[in-house]
Amino acid sequence: MNENEGINDAICLLNDHLEIKQTSLELHNDALQTYELLRNRLTEVIHYLLNNDIQKLLTAVYRIDVPEDKFKSAMENDDINLISENIADLILEREFRKVEYRKKYSG
Fold first, then answer.
1. Mind spelling out the 3-state secondary structure of the chain?
2. Chain centroid offset of residue 18 CA
3. In angstroms, how far apart are the furthest CA atoms of the chain?
4. According to the model, what pLDDT value does residue 28 have?
5. What is the rounded CA–CA span in Å between residue 26 and residue 23?
6. Residue 74 belongs to domain spanning
7. CA-CA-CA-CA dihedral for 49, 51, 53, 54, to nearest 10
8. CA nearest to 91, candidates 63, 58, 61, 68
9. C-alpha of 34 from chain center
10. Per residue of the chain (107 residues), what is the pLDDT tens digit?
């Protein structure tokens, strides 16, 4: 699996879990650049949800299966931008782990 395939799979999972329409991201030859774009977009979505629909965010975090203790730690900050970034990192870590497991154990 190349890195962009994994990123694309993670984007599909995120769209489903966060109940958003297709995340419009252009996949670049540089997977790191694509990852950073995805992280930035996810941070924006989380920031919006923190301000406007916390219940939707909590439901998504539960569905994604982010560890509760890590999520609580991420929320322990006064800066909403930092909170958004921390939650985005947790979500991406979990989604990429799911992609990796599915690829490894699929027939």
1. CCHHHHHHHHHHHHHHHCCCCCCCCCCCCCHHHHHHHHHHHHHHHHHHHHHHCHHHHHHHHHHHCCCHHHHHHHHCCCCHHHHHHHHHHHHHHHHHHHHHHHHHHCC
2. 9
3. 46
4. 54
5. 9
6. 3-105
7. 80
8. 61
9. 13
10. 456 667 777 777 777 777 666 555 455 566 667 788 889 888 998 999 999 999 999 999 999 999 999 999 999 999 999 999 999 999 999 988 988 888 888 86
23: closest CA among 8, 5, 1, 36?
A: 8
Q: How many domains does the chain have?
A: 1
Structure tokens at 14: 């995120």
Structure tokens, 23: 């995340």
> What six digits make up the tokens of 24?
């419009």
